[in-house]
Design a protein that fits this description.
Largest sheet: 5 strands, mixed
Order of helices and strands: HHHHHHEEHEHEE
Shape: elongated
Number of strands: 5
Radius of gyration: 22 Å
Oligomer: single chain
Strand order of the largest sheet: 2-1-3-4-5
Distance between the termini: 66 Å
Structural class: alpha+beta
Helix content: 25-40%
């Protein structure tokens, strides 16, 4: 086994980072720095290599869980916690917004910026509602349903009950398509029409329904489909 200390100084991850900058390091080297130390059987770089071998693509690193990390011999809970913290930090930095609460929503791009990084690795559909005040500022972001978005799963009473609870004057609905294709399905269209109709009756309009895809989004409002 090749240990970090056996690698020439100029080729060691930390030394390479100090001399060449973090951008010069491979993902394996970056992970090795976070792991810090290996075991008698595996160096930190070997452990990093084992992590990468479990990924289909680099983006899949965001899907790794605590259980995934500790299942690798040589990575305990402390090392796993460090890796998960680094991954979460990268997600939040990519998101651009730490929270959408109190943000004034003037266009769908703002909603997409926040929810894209939050939902891009989810394998299930997540249905959120943003509850807005009269100035279009977000009073609350609420996850209401998990699973396929359709009539049977999304109950309008829950959508509007939360609106009354937060004294909202309008609502924006948001959900993701794990497939990455943001094109609305027939169920998405029917659900949106139903919520719009009920919103008019309740006096709490639906401002938009935004579908989050892999690197794009669909806005019913921008598409002129909110009538």
């Amino acid at each position: 086994m090749t240990k970090i200390k056996d690698i020439p100084i100029h080729d060691r991850p930390i030394e390479r980072l100090l001399h060449n900058g973090a951008s010069a390091l491979s993902l394996e080297e970056l992970l090795a720095i976070l792991i810090k130390t290996g075991t008698k059987e595996s160096s930190a770089k070997m452990l990093a290599s084992q992590i990468l071998s479990r990924l289909k693509s680099v983006d899949d690193i965001h899907k790794l869980t605590l259980e995934d990390f500790v299942s690798i011999k040589g990575i305990g809970y402390t090392k796993a916690a460090t890796l998960l913290a680094a991954i979460e930090l990268s997600k939040r930095l990519q998101r651009g917004l730490e929270t959408i609460k109190y943000v004034r929503v003037t266009n769908a791009e703002i909603v997409y910026t926040y929810y894209h990084s939050l939902l891009q690795t989810r394998s299930q559909e997540h249905f959120y509602c943003l509850y807005l005040d009269s100035q279009k500022k977000v009073l609350e972001s609420k996850l209401l349903f998990l699973g396929t978005v359709n009539y049977s799963m999304v109950h309008p009473r829950e959508v509007f009950l939360e609106a009354y609870s937060h004294h909202a004057t309008s609502i924006i609905c948001v959900h993701n398509h794990p497939s990455g294709d943001a094109t609305p399905s027939r169920a998405d269209i029917e659900l949106t029409k139903r919520l719009i109709e009920i919103g008019k009756l309740m006096g709490i309009p639906i401002d938009d329904h935004i579908i989050i895809g892999r690197n794009t989004y669909y806005s019913f409002f921008e598409a002129g489909k909110m009538e």
